[in-house]
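Honest question from a wet-lab person: if I give you the sequences of every part of a complex, can you actually get the arrangement of the whole thing, not just the pieces? Trying it with mine:
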Amino acid sequence: MAHILIVDDSPTVLMSMDNLLQRFGHTTTQAASAEEAVDIVSQGGDAPKMVITDFHMGGANGAELIQSLRKQPPLRFTPMLVLTTDSQKERREEAKAAGATGWLTKPVDHEQLEAVLNKLLPNS
Amino acid sequence: MNSLLDQFVSECRDLIETSSRALLALETDTENPAQINELFRAIHTIKGASGLFDFKPLTSCVHAGEDLLDAVRAGDVAFNSGIADLLLEMLDRLVEWLDSIEDSETLPSDAQEISAALSTRLRDYISDGAGVNDADDTSQQTEVAAPWPDDIPVLEGAETGLSLITYTPGETTFFAGGDPLRTVLAAPGLLWMQVVQPDDWPDVDQLDPFMLKIGFRLVSSATVPDLEKHFSYDIDDVSIERIAATDGPSAIEQLADDILQSQAALLATPQTGVAAENIQKSAADVVARVGRNLNVSDDAVGDLDATIADVRGEPAGNDPAPVDKPQVAEPEKQPAAAPAKQRSSGYLRVDSDRIDALMNLAGELIVAKNAMPFLARKAENIEDGRELVREIKMQHNTINRIAEELQAAIMQIRMVPVGSVLSRFNRLVRDMSRKLGKDIRYVVDGEDTEADKAIVDELSDPIVHLIRNSIDHGIEDPTERAEADKPKQGTIRVSAFNKDDSVVIEITDDGKGIAVDKVVKKALERGLIDAERVNAMSANEKLQLIFLPGLSTKEEVSDLSGRGVGMDVVASMVRRLGGQISIDSEPGLGARVTLSLPLSMAVQQLMMVEVGDGLYGVPVDSVVESQKISPVSIRRHRDAEMVLLRDRLIPLVRMRDLFQCDAQDDPETLSVMVVDVNGHESGLVVDRFHPGVDAIVKPMSGVLANYDCYSGTALLGDGSILLALNLREIVECQYH
Amino acid sequence: MPISLTDTEAVLSGDIDITDVDALHPWLTEHRGGTVDLTDCKSAHTAVVQLLIAAKANIKNNSETNDWRSILSNSNSYLLQ
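Yes, you can. This is the full assembly:
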C-alpha cells in the first residue's frame, strides 16, 4: 500500500491509472499539470511513494517536472516514471537524464504496471 | 571484440553455411522435410542469438526469414527457387553484416533500410492466413552458452543453459529512485542471486550510505528478451550471458595446465647469450617443474635441482622454490568432480587460438626436453653421478612419452573434416555457372576425410581458384558439350582421401581438358623454359609447366576466374603448406588437379644453421651431409660456384648473398651443408652448423607469407623464432 | 515502527525504506558490529542492505524462511528453492 502521485493533462488517463493502481491496493493523488503537481508536493503532507507523470503536458513537460521534484528532499529517492508511447523512446532518455527511474509505455495495462511496481515498490 | 560477440559471429557463420547447404539441397529436392527443418533451425538460432545484441535490423530481417520458413515448414507456402534466391540474398547480407560487426561491432549504416526491404519481400511470400508465429525462444537456450562459473551452485536447468546477469548499477542510482535489490529479487525466473561487494569498505562512519557501491549477479531461467525487458531501465548497467554446465577439466587440460605453468616460468627466465644455451636453461626449468610432479624421491629431486642450478650457473641449493610433495603422475587421472549434474554435450567450442597456444607450448616442451640428454652428460662429470644419470635418463623417457602423447592428443583435437571447406563451394559453382550459362553439377566425395585445421583453413583459396578455372576454362557450354557428344551437364568433382601421411584432394572436371601444345608454346614464348629442355620432357611433364610463374593459357583474364591469379599462384600456395600439386588431363575428356598435403604440421627434425646473425632450420630429411671445405677448392663455371665432393660436383648457394649479408672476412674454411632437393644436390654455404632440434614448423602468415625462401616458422624453447628454409625456392632462386 | 533501536540491538520489521538509513547509520557507527534483528523484516531497500553489509552488522534472523535475507550471511548469495 503506497501513496502515488499521478500527473497527466488527460482526465481519462488519470482515471484509468487511478483504477489500475487501486487494484494493487495503492492510493493516488492526481494532478492535471506539472505546475499543479509541484504545488501539491510543496504543500507538505505525506510525500508520495511514487510519481507517475505524462511526458507531454501543457506547461512544463514530464522531464522538467521530474527534475524539479527530485530537488525536493522527501522525493530524492522516490521512484518516478514517465508515461510515453512506444514511438517516443528518445523521451525516455530525456526523462532518465532528468532523474526519472524509468517509464511506462502507453497504453498501460495491468500486467505492465504489476511488473513495474514489483521492481520498484515493496509489498506489491 | 568481446568474447560473447566473437562467439556470436563465429556461430552465425557456421549457421549461415549450414543454411546455404540446406538451401542448395532444397533446390533439387524442394520437399525434403529434413532440409527444411535444418534450414529453419539454423535461421531460428541466428535470430535467437542475435537477440542478445542490439542488432535490430539483423534480428528483424532474420525473423522475417524464419517466419517464411515456418510457413514453408507448415506447408502453407510452397518452396520455390524465388524463395531460395531471396533467402540466399538474405544470407549474403548477413555475411556482410557479420563482417561489419567483426570490424566495428556495429552494423553498416544502411542496414536498417536493407533489412526493412528484405523483410517486406520475405513476408510477401507468406500467404495470408499462414501462421506467423513468434517462434518459441527456448531453442536458443542451448546455444551460445559459456561454461558454468565455478562459484555458482549448479541449478535446475543448468544443462540446457540459463542466463547469468551481471548488474552493476551506477553509484547515484538511489537518487534516480532506483532500488536495484528489489529489481533483482523481482527478476523473472530468478534461481540464484549474489551481492557483489567492493574490494574494501570505508569505516562505517566514513561511509556514504546513499552512494551505491554493491552490484549483483543473478541466474535466471527466463529468456533473454524477458530479462532485457525487466532490466530495461538500467539496461546499460546489465550484461546477460548464457551459461551452461559442461564437463569438468579433462586429464589433458590438467596436463596442459601443468605445462602452461612451467612454460610461464620458462618465458619469465631472462634470456641472454646464444639461443642454444637458452634452450638448455629453459629446458632446465621445464624439467625441474615437470620432474617434481613425477614419482621421484626427494633425494633425486635435490640432485636434479643441483644439476639444474649448475646449468643455470647458480650456486646449488639457492633455489627458494618449494619442492612440492612428489606425486605420482597419472595422466589418466579422473578429472575433478564436475559441478554439472549431467553432461550437456560432448563438444566444446574452443577458440582455435587457444588450441594454437596449447600446440605452441607442446612444441616448446618437445624442444625443451631435448636438453635432458645434455643434463645427463653433465651429470656424468659429477662425482658418484651414475645414479643421477640413470634418473635423468628415466625422466627423459617419461617426459618424452608425455610430450609425445600430449602432442598427439592436441593434433587429434586439431583434426577437422575437409568437408566443411569443400561443401562451401556449392554456391560458387551454382552462381558462376549460371552467370556463364553453363550447367554444372558439383560433387564432393570424402568430406569426412580429416586434416589439421590449419591445413584445412588454407585449402580454401587454392581450391577456389581451381574450381573457378574448371568452370571458366574447363567445362564447355551446353551446346558445345552436345556437339562433343557429352552430357549437357558438366561435373566438377572434388574428392578427398587419405594416402599415407597426407591428405589428397583431387579436383576433376569432365570439360575439354588442357591442350599441352598450347602450354608448351606459351612457356617457350615467354622464355620460361628452353626448347632443349622441353624436347626431353614427357607429355605429363610438359603439362606441369602450367604451374610455372607467369604462364596463363587463357588469352584474356576472365572476370570470373579471379583476376591475375594463375596456376602458379595456386601451386605456390600449396607448396607453402608443405604440399605438392600435379595435373593430368585427357584432351576432350577433362582435367584433374591433385593436391597432396601433409595431414598435420607434425614435428619435424630441423638442423640449425647460422647465417649472419640469424638461425635457420633445414629439414633433416633433406640434409645429405655437412662439410667444411677450403675456399680454394671452389670451382667457378660462368657465374656459378661449385665444389667437388667425393667425385660429385655440387653447386654452391652462398646463403649470405641470398640474405644480403656482407660476406664473411676471408674464412679459412667454409661450412657447406649439402641438401637434396628433388634428387638434385646443392651445397648451402653457411657460417656455422648448430645441433638439430625437434620443432613444429607452421606455415608463414601475414606479410612474411610472401617470402618464398621460407617454408615456415618454428618456435624455440626460449621463445625465439626459427625460420625454416624452403630449400626448393632457395635452390631454384639461385638458378633463375 | 519499522525500526527500533536499543543499546544492544536494532530490530527491523516490515518494509525498511531508504529513509530509515538516516536512523540506522548513526546507530551502526556507535554500535560497531552491533546485532541487527531481521526476524520480522519483510523487505529492505538496497541502501539498507548495503549499509548492513558495509558495517559488518551481526545479523540475527530467527525466521525459518529462505529468502533474500541470506545475502546478509551465506557468502552474500541467495539460492531460491
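Two things worth pointing out. The interface with chain C takes residues 77, 122-123 of chain A (CB under 8 Å). Chain A has one domain: 3-120.
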